[in-house]
């Protein structure tokens, strides 16, 4: 089986983090999100992969090249203009040269769901399109699915209002498709899988099925879920291999890390290579600190993500927030919950809750 990764999204909900980095390349424990997806596919014995992205994301091909390092073969398609999650698939006709099904996955997913049973289900039912799905408590941000006992989809609605919700079974952004599906797609205008293609197929009574996946799944297209998925990995809720191993239960520390006497580390925590934690500082649970950071004296950090090469000055407090690469937080600064600091910022005053700071900003009193 071959796979396609849809990696052309703008990541508007992830700004200011995606103001300088394409969404699929956002760091997740110091590696791009897309790298975890590629490893996930390889672990499912899928090694021929096409990445569909846009012309503003050359960093993807520059980083992954042909994929040999990850044991896969990568090809790339660049869109001149957005064609939608279904419209972009029309360009795959040259990539598909047999009648075998194709696995399609969005480029902002963290999952450990095994797809072998889904493939067998797809083939058994002679499905044209199989949507992998899962149950969630709040289905509003997703496409909801109503299906028959055998899994055939009856109704589908993308991002329903509260009054429209008829199911908690939602689209995972993972699909198995037959090559003949492409004949229902046009490349003349933007065509979305959820808004356009699925409703079209249902109206034509085409065989669309739903398979409920078992395992961890998260769409990390929002800042809140991006953070939560980091925390989920720290507590072992998802089966992914991190670039650094545990030194103690729940404590993951890289090479050449300096933790001075008098500093306190509470698990679960991740600290990247060559980072320095100075005396009197408290690194609380659910904290991820990247490589080459300096956390000076009497700093408190909890439930937060600090990317690489960040300086945090004396007596600062960082809670439930994200600080991107190459930023400087001076002394006695408080960064409150749900705040996001973009790359290359200098912060010299308190940051209010839920504040989004654009890259290259300099904030003073």
Automatic annotation (TrEMBL):
Gene3D superfamilies, A to Z: Hexapeptide repeat proteins, Spore Coat Polysaccharide Biosynthesis Protein SpsA, Chain A
Domain EIF2B subunit epsilon/gamma LbH intervals: 254-351
Main location (coarse class): cytoplasm
Keyword Cytoplasm: yes
Subcellular location: Cytoplasm, Cytosol
Cytoplasm found in the keyword field: yes
Residues of the Nucleotidyl transferase domain: 2-230
Tree of life domain: Bacteria
Keywords, sorted A to Z: Cytoplasm
PANTHER family: SUGAR-1-PHOSPHATE GUANYL TRANSFERASE (PTHR22572)
Protein name: NDP-sugar synthase
The organism's taxonomic lineage, starting at the top: Bacteria, Bacillati, Bacillota, Bacilli, Bacillales
């Amino acid at each position: 089986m071959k796979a396609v990764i849809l990696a052309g999204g703008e990541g508007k909900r992830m700004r200011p983090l995606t103001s300088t980095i394409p969404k699929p390349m956002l760091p997740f424990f110091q590696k791009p999100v897309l790298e975890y997806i590629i490893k996930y596919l390889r672990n499912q014995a899928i090694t021929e992969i096409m990445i569909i992205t846009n012309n503003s994301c050359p960093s993807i091909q520059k980083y992954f090249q042909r994929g040999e390092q990850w044991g896969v073969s990568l090809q790339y398609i660049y869109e001149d203009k957005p064609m939608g999650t279904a419209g972009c698939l029309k360009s795959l006709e040259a990539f598909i040269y047999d009648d075998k099904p194709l696995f399609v996955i969005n480029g902002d997913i963290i999952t450990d769901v095994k797809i072998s049973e889904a493939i067998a289900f797809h083939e058994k039912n002679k499905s044209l399109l199989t949507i992998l799905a899962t149950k969630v408590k709040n289905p509003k941000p997703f496409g909801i699915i109503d299906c028959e006992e055998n899994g055939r989809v009856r109704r589908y609605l993308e991002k329903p209002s509260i009054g429209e919700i008829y199911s908690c079974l939602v689209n995972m952004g993972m699909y198995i498709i037959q090559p003949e599906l492409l004949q229902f797609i046009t490349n003349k205008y933007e065509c979305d899988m959820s808004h356009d293609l699925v409703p079209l197929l249902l109206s034509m009574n085409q065989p669309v099925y739903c398979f409920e996946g078992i395992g961890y799944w998260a769409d990390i297209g929002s800042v809140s879920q991006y953070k939560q998925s980091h925390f989920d990995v720290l507590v072992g809720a998802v089966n992914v291999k991190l670039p650094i191993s545990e030194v103690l239960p729940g404590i993951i520390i890289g090479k050449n890390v300096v933790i001075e006497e008098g500093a306190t580390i509470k698990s679960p925590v991740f600290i990247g290579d060559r980072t320095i934690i100075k005396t009197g500082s408290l690194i609380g649970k659910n904290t991820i600190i990247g490589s080459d950071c300096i956390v000076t004296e009497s700093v408190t950090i909890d439930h937060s993500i600090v990317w690489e090469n960040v300086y945090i000055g004396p007596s600062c407090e960082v809670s439930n927030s994200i600080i991107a690469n190459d930023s400087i937080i001076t002394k006695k600064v408080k960064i409150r919950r749900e705040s996001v600091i973009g790359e290359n910022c200098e912060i010299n005053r308190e940051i209010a809750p839920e504040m989004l700071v654009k890259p290259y900003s300099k904030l003073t009193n």
